[in-house]
Amino acid sequence: MSDSEDNDNEFQDEEIENGHISSSLSPTQYVNASSTDEDEEELAGDFNIDLPTSHKYLGKLNDLGGYTLFEDGEVLTLLGIFTNTWVLPGFTLPLILENPHESSVMQHFLQKRKVFVLLCENALNSQEYFDYGVTMEAVETSIKDGILSLKARGRQRCQVVPKSEIKHLTERLQKVTVKILPEYKVTSPLNDTQLYNLKQKRPYLCEDYGDMKNIRKYRKYHAAQYTYPSWLYEEYEVCYYVKHILEGLKKCFEMEFVPKDPLTLSYWFVQNYLLQYTERLELFKQRTVIARLRLEMQYLRNNRLIICHNCTQLIGEQQHVIVLSKDGIQNNYVNPGGNVYETITLSEAKNFMLIGRPSKQFSWFPGYAWTIMQCKHCKLHLGWMFTSSTLSPGVFYGLARSCVLVANAPNTPNCTSPEL
Where is this region: Disordered (predicted)? Predict the structure, then answer.
């Protein structure tokens, strides 16, 4: 990648890879791993948000096929990888393993089973892994000059078995024993204590909140045997939370690709909404979908700010998040050196400076050139500005979650939800 003319001495003999400096990737490897500006296909019009999810910058990959799910409660010993990023079930993780030993270990495990585990950092102790992870299934791979490139999809939540041995194979790869976590089916609070004849004559179950309004008078019959008012039981129906979360998200997101299914929505929220790291961990360990949705509805009450990880200078605001991928505003991308970045896309950003010249090499958003962003105050790397003269939007910003923090905006409510 191009170096800034003002920083030639500082970055001498080193390669800048999507904003980070590394001498581990040789110029030959870099050319093989990415496309040149001249080879980039000219695109025009509105940007196709299907393109980032395909991760075309990885080159041609071989489809492995299949869809692997394990039984609830099953205990497995799998390869685990730590990438300092998040992937929820249903979302994609791109990887480049350019270290020969790391690549060899991963290939060895993938030959036996296409599934591995994504581990994340414990918020209370950065030297330890969080107790929960996600099984990832490799769906596409390629090997070129000893470099392994792959795409994996999140499948199921799992938990590291307490006191089990974690065998470190490389810096990022471990052999771990995990237990597959079930997704418990949540039923209506009125479901198990009703007389059969009453159930037959007075409908009370509903999957959509709009349907609940139509049968509200019948639900009152079922709730009459209890001391609590009938409206209270509505707040323990899954559809109640889906309705209010979708209403809250409308104020901040384009809703075309926001799922309506309760389980999928609960994962989409964790993957896409601007959450603090500890909030994500808290949501991820919830046992049921309704527990996640209840907590997510609380988090919707606060407007969020994006600040520099080092000096806490304001960089972006929640109202400026923009969807440039079918999977949402926060997605994982990998640079040629194998560093994975969860990237937040914004239409506006502030308090940054640009480093180097625009380049389309290994661009995560086809048709756009990227330029490195640094904090104007402390010079910390923040992410990348993406520009195009033919695509709309012409400019947007991709902030690396590992370089910024999410904070609550003081006294500025935006996406709100009803009080519980």
Answer: 1-42
Any idea what DSSP says for residue 328? Answer: -
Q: Which residues are registered as beta bridge partners of 81?
A: 118, 173
**Residues of 143-167 as b/e, b for ≥16 C-beta within 10 angstroms?**
eeeebbbbbbbbbbbbebbeeeeee
Tell me the one-letter amino acid at 387.
T
The whole-model pTM stands at: 0.82
Token pair of 253, please?
């997101």
Say how many domains are in the chain: 4
Host domain of residue 354? 1-57+301-420
Angle at the Cα of 209 (from 205 to 214), degrees rounded to 5?
70
Q: How many helices (H) and strands (E) does the chain have?
A: 11, 21
Per-residue tokens: 78: 């799998």
79-88 pLDDT, tens digit per residue, is: 999 887 889 9
Paired with 77 in beta bridges are: 177
Task: Give the C-alpha separation, 62 to 59, whole Å.
Answer: 10
Clarify whether residues 170 and 219 are in a common domain.
no
Q: Are residues 411 and 360 in the same domain?
A: yes
Identify the pLDDT of residue 38: 40
Q: Which residue has the tokens 């009453």?
A: 198
Greatest Cα pair distance, the chain, in angstroms, is 83
pLDDT digits (tens, 9 = 90+) for 197-238: 666 666 666 677 777 777 777 777 777 777 778 777 777 888
Last-in-domain residue among 269, 300, 331: 300
The Cα–Cα gap between 116 and 77 comes to 9
Q: Does residue 208 or residue 341 have the better pLDDT? A: 341
Give CA–CA dist 82/70, Å, rounded. 21
Query: In whole angstroms, what is the distance from residue 174 CA to residue 119 CA?
Result: 9
